[in-house]
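Work Package 4 report. The design task specified in the project plan requires that, given a folded chain encoded as C-alpha cells, an amino acid be chosen for each position. We show below one input record used in the internal validation round.
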C-alpha cells in the first residue's frame, strides 16, 4: 500500500511539473500586456526553477570534501547525489550515513555536477572521465602556471560531451582572481601584489605528502611582502627515509621551485596543524589619467571551508553556462548566487 501511495505522489509531482511547464510556455508566447498574466508567468517560471534541485556528487572526501558536504547541506538549491571515495562505503564515516557512498560516480543516479575535492595533480584525469559522462565538473586546481593548458584540454572534452567544466575555483586561484580582475578594470595601469598567509597551504602540503619517504607534512606560507613568499615545510618522515633526499625533492617540486623554501624535520606534524590562512591583495594604479589610486582586499579564513564554499557556488554557476571550460573570471558573478535574478539585482545593485 505504501509503495502505491509513493507511486501516486511521484505521478502527481510529475504531472504538476508538466502542467507548470506547459502554462509557462503558453505565457511565453502570449503577447498580452495584462499585469495579471505577466505576474502569473513570473510565478510559474519561479516554481519550475525551484522544483528541481541541483544534484551534486562530491569526489574525494578529505578536508575539502568534508567541508564541501557541509556547504551543499546548507545550500537551498542543492541536494547531495552521493560521495565518491577510493574505499567506497568501506569504513563509511557516520556523517555519511544518509548518503550513497561509492567507488565510481557511475554508480550514482542523475548527477548534474561533480565537485572534485581531489589533489590538484589528479584533477585533469578525474575531470576528463566525468565530463565524458556528460556531467559538469568544478575543481580547485591550483598550479597557476598550468591553468591555461588545463583549460584548453578540458574545453575540448567538455564541448565534445555537452558538459561544462569550471577550473581553478577555490579562493586562490578562484575568488581572488575575480578580485584581481575587478581591481585591474578600475585601475588599468598599475601593480597588484597578492600576499598569502601566514597560513597552511593545502595544495603545497598535499604535494609534499606525495613525495617518497614523507609520512606527513605541513607547508606554511609566510608573506615577505610585494607578492613574495617564504615556504616553511615541516615533514614527518617514514622510518628509514633520508632527510636530505626528501628535502631536495621538495625544493625541486613545481609547487616550491620559485619560492624561498625551508624544510624542517619534526617528530609529529599533527601537533603543528592549523587550517587558518589568509590573503592581502593590494593594487596601486591609475584610473583614467589620475594616479595614486590605492585598493586593498584582506581576509582571514578557514582554508578548506572557504575553498568548499567557492566550489559549491561555482557548481551552481556551471548549470547556467554553455558547454566548454571556464575559469572564474569568465563566469558572470550573478550566476554564483542562488535565487531569482531580478531579486538579486534589486538587492545587490
Amino acid at each position: 500500500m505504501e509503495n502505491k501511495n509513493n507511486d501516486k505522489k511521484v505521478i502527481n509531482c510529475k504531472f504538476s511539473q508538466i502542467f507548470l511547464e506547459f502554462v509557462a510556455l503558453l505565457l511565453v508566447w502570449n503577447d498580452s500586456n495584462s499585469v495579471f498574466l505577466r505576474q502569473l508567468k513570473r510565478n510559474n517560471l519561479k516554481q519550475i526553477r525551484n522544483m528541481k534541485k541541483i544534484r551534486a556528487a562530491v569526489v574525494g572526501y578529505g578536508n575539502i570534501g568534508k567541508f564541501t558536504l557541509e556547504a551543499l547541506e546548507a545550500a537551498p538549491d542543492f541536494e547531495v547525489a552521493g560521495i565518491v571515495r577510493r574505499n567506497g562505503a568501506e569504513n563509511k564515516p557516520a556523517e555519511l550515513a544518509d548518503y550513497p557512498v561509492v567507488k565510481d560516480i557511475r554508480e550514482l543516479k542523475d548527477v548534474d555536477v561533480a565537485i572534485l575535492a581531489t589533489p590538484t595533480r589528479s584533477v585533469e584525469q578525474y575531470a576528463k572521465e566525468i565530463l565524458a559522462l556528460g556531467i559538469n565538473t568544478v575543481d580547485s586546481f591550483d598550479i597557476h602556471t598550468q591553468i591555461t593548458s588545463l583549460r584548453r584540454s578540458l574545453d575540448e572534452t567538455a564541448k565534445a560531451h555537452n558538459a561544462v567544466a569550471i577550473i581553478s575555483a577555490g579562493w586562490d586561484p578562484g575568488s581572488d582572481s575575480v578580485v584581481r580582475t575587478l581591481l585591474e578594470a578600475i585601475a588599468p595601469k598599475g601593480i597588484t601584489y597578492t600576499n598569502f598567509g601566514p597560513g597552511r597551504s593545502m595544495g603545497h602540503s598535499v604535494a609534499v605528502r606525495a613525495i617518497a619517504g614523507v609520512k606527513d607534512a605541513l607547508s606554511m606560507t609566510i608573506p615577505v611582502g610585494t607578492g613574495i613568499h617564504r615556504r616553511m615545510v615541516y615533514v614527518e618522515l617514514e622510518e628509514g627515509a633520508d632527510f636530505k633526499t626528501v628535502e631536495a625533492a621538495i625544493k625541486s617540486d613545481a609547487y616550491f621551485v620559485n619560492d624561498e623554501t625551508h624544510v624542517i624535520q619534526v617528530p609529529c606534524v599533527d601537533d603543528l596543524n592549523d587550517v587558518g590562512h589568509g590573503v592581502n591583495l593590494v593594487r596601486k594604479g591609475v584610473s583614467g589619467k589620475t594616479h595614486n589610486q590605492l585598493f586593498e582586499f584582506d581576509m582571514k579564513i578557514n582554508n578548506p571551508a572557504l575553498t568548499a564554499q567557492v566550489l559549491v557556488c561555482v557548481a551552481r554557476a556551471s548549470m547556467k553556462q554553455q558547454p566548454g571550460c571556464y575559469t572564474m573570471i569568465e563566469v558572470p558573478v550573478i550566476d554564483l548566487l542562488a535565487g531569482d535574478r531580478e531579486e538579486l539585482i534589486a538587492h545587490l545593485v
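The first helix runs from residue 2 to 29. Validation will be extended to a larger panel in the next phase.
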